[in-house]
Amino acid sequence: MTSTIGLWLRREASPHEERTPLVPGDAAALVGAGVEVVVEEAAQRAFAAEEYAAAGCRIVPADSWPDAPPEAVVLGLKEPTRAAEALAHRHIFFGHAYKGQVDGPRVLRRFTSGGGTLLDLEELVDDAGRRVIAFGFWAGYVGAALAVLHHRGELAAPLRSTTRAELDARLRATSSEPSAERAVVLGALGRSGRGAVEALGVAGVPTTEWDIAETADLDRAALLAHDILVNAVFSAEPGPPFLAAPDLADPGRALATVSDVTCDVTSELNRLPVNDRITTWDEPARRLHADPVLDVVAIDNLPSLLPREASTTFSAGLTPHLLTLAADSPVWTRSRARFADAVTGLG
């Protein structure tokens, strides 16, 4: 990347969002490779502006990205604020706009009205169509941990960001010997599923690991015999529900806590249609059924609970691709093509 300003790391405005797609150590590597990195001030970011300044980045006021030079690539995690409604730059963030989400058309129209381009982080894929970078492991880890703590009556609201060491200590402190719970992880072989299985291991919960074969031919009675369900399935197309309305009233159901890590609650791809909205840091669990009890945790920014660990892992995976942005490597070409297809289909 040889432009006067290469990357413009903007602040995140979403509540509780302390993560960043680029940590100071990796920013230093970009600067060392000749990329100029501009970083907005951000009070809630897990890494201080001083750390970026020490890495050779230029620090600018929050929400100044609309005034960035036209060639700047604006980098973030979630949708930009309304500092400018029309988006004129190339933007890198998670658009959540291609899977039928309710807000998808609105997000895309911000680009069509401004002439900009979305390079969606979710659409950075290899030749086989597999995502090259994601927060999945930490989403699964935190989602499973919250499910265990809720099931044990130890999930206090409001939630606060923490560290893995502190979260693991809480899981171990509440565990029983032997564990009285049984958990099932759907999508156990994926990033999120692996994170969920690891957290359940720390908590001492015996865990059934199901993936494509088991979810394609779901043994519903076996699923309902578990106490905790963690949904970590990434769906590319609609499929049969993992839980349906009749399951809620099943008097023989042991299942009492569901953690919906995938959180496709506003999408036609939602495999848990019994839940149609997210939960929050202030109210992390919601009751779906009273007798027998079934509660759901459906927080859509789970890795933010471990902002430093999640950011460090994500940034390490993203940085090599940022170095290929000027060369327009295949991962960026595919992301841009996905955007072009999406805006062509706008009504």
Describe what this molecule looks like in 3D.
The protein has 347 residues and is of the alpha/beta class. It has two domains: 7-123 and 306-344, NAD(P)-binding Rossmann-like Domain (Rossmann fold, 3-Layer(aba) Sandwich); 136-305, 3-Layer(aba) Sandwich (Rossmann fold), CATH 3.40.50. It is 32% helix and 14% strand. The chain is built from eleven helices and twelve strands. The chain has helices spanning 24-32, 49-54, 104-114, 136-151, 164-174, 191-203, 212-216, 220-224, 245-248, 307-322, 330-344; strands at 7-9, 37-40, 58-60, 73-75, 90-93, 117-120, 183-186, 207-210, 228-231, 257-260, 285-290, 293-297. The strands form two sheets. A six-stranded parallel sheet has the order 3-2-1-4-5-6, sandwiched between helices. Strands 8-7-9-10-12-11 form a six-stranded mixed sheet. Helix 3 (104-114) links the parallel strand 5 and strand 6 (117-120). Helix 1 runs parallel beside helix 10 and helix 4 (136-151) runs parallel beside helix 6 (191-203). The protein is globular and about 60 Å long.
Query: Biggest sheet: strands side by side, in what order?
Result: 3-2-1-4-5-6
Compute the separation of the termini in Å. Answer: 35 Å
In CATH, the topology of the largest domain is named Rossmann fold
Structural class label: alpha/beta
**Radius of gyration, taken over Cα atoms and rounded to an integer in Å:** 21 Å
DSSP strand tally: 12
Any idea how many domains?
2
Indicate the percent of residues in helices.
25-40%
Under the CATH scheme, which class of the largest domain?
Alpha Beta
Sequence of secondary-structure elements: EHEHEEEHEHHEHEHHEHEEEHH
Q: For the record, what is the CATH homologous superfamily label of the largest domain?
A: NAD(P)-binding Rossmann-like Domain
| Proportion of residues in extended strands | 5-15%
